[in-house]
Amino acid sequence: MTSGTIVVAGALAQKPRHGGHAWVLLQYLLGFKRLGWDVLFLDCLTGNASIQSSQVAAFLPLVRGFELEDQFALLVDGTHETIGLSRARVVERAHNSALLLNVMGFLTDEEILAQARRRVFLDIDPGFPQMWRQLGLHDSFAGHDAFVTIGQNIGYADCTIPTCGLEWITTPQPIVLERWPTATNQAQARFTSVATWRGAYGPLEYAGSIYGLRVHEFRKFATLPSLTGLTFELALDIHPSETGDLDLLKRGGWSLLDPGVVAGDPWSYQRFIQTSAAEFMTAKHMYVATNSGWFSDRSLCYLASSKPVLAQDTGLCRLYPVGQGLVTFRTLDEACAGAQAITADYRRHASAARELAEAYFDSDIVLRNLLAKLGVA
Q1: At what angle do helices 332-344 and 346-356 cross, to 10 degrees?
Q2: pLDDT tens digits along 111-127
Q3: 200 & 240 share domain
Q4: Which DSSP symbol is given to 296?
Q5: Would you list the DSSP string of 268-294?
Q6: Strands 72-76 and 82-84: what pairing?
Q7: pLDDT digits (tens, 9 = 90+) for 333-348
């Protein structure tokens, strides 16, 4: 028996060949289903007919592969047409839902939003939407009843993300552990990651400081492979015109891979992680400089797979035990020491990685706690 319906709205069809991003949304959808909820996923099609056709072609195998064929609707931009459930059915299910979880305020359809009894904003990019609102650039929060963020340090004195006068519910991200089993078959001691160099928007100036992107942090660690003598592979979404940064990484000893090839769908993304030895994770400058408490959804996949994570510190020590399985760093020297420590005692770190995933990020625990904080029985 189901507990009712939870609607999740987010951008997935517009991001083909981004297997990691697909998993972000899948963890919520599959996690709520595990708890007995019916789910409805809402997305939008944008661009011209040719672009929309390619979006649909990439999207449909994904929903079929995760048994979500009857639990989605793609809203066709500028029309009342849908692919999947009809608009009338979407409106009906939104009206009867326990809540609508709107990832980054993605869904702006006024009719559907008005039908939901509880509209919850889910912030997975902490710092940016809060500063946009404070600067008068964009208000993603309007029209929502509750506000959830994975920036778990928001509200603390040492976190510089503005609260915007809102009451924030903090949560770790969930991972469905049955979908991410332990994998101990790495061929060699490879530190890997999947990352976007810049992203869709630029740095922000707020309260006298400039908050940047991953590129502004990663450059600090460009020499890590050559300094440690270890293997580092990076599936990096970077524009070919970034010749200076590409040369910097290659000189530093990074092996660069095409993320569209090695991690272009949820299945290849999972294979890439589970055949790695460990993750090297750098965060956006925004997350580091604000002491946000952000932790990567990708890192959860490594931990669950018994792959240790060498993670740039965003204020994680307040939130989780670090040092075994999850090793944090702030400087290049600390990153080198952390990589060597993981390599020297790999089995202990690998075992601790899975234990962390089970204790702190299991979707059964995380999503039950989130629903309780939202007052949903």
Answers
A1: 100
A2: 999 999 999 999 999 99
A3: yes
A4: -
A5: HHHHHHHTSSEEEE---HHHHHTT---
A6: antiparallel
A7: 999 999 999 999 999 9
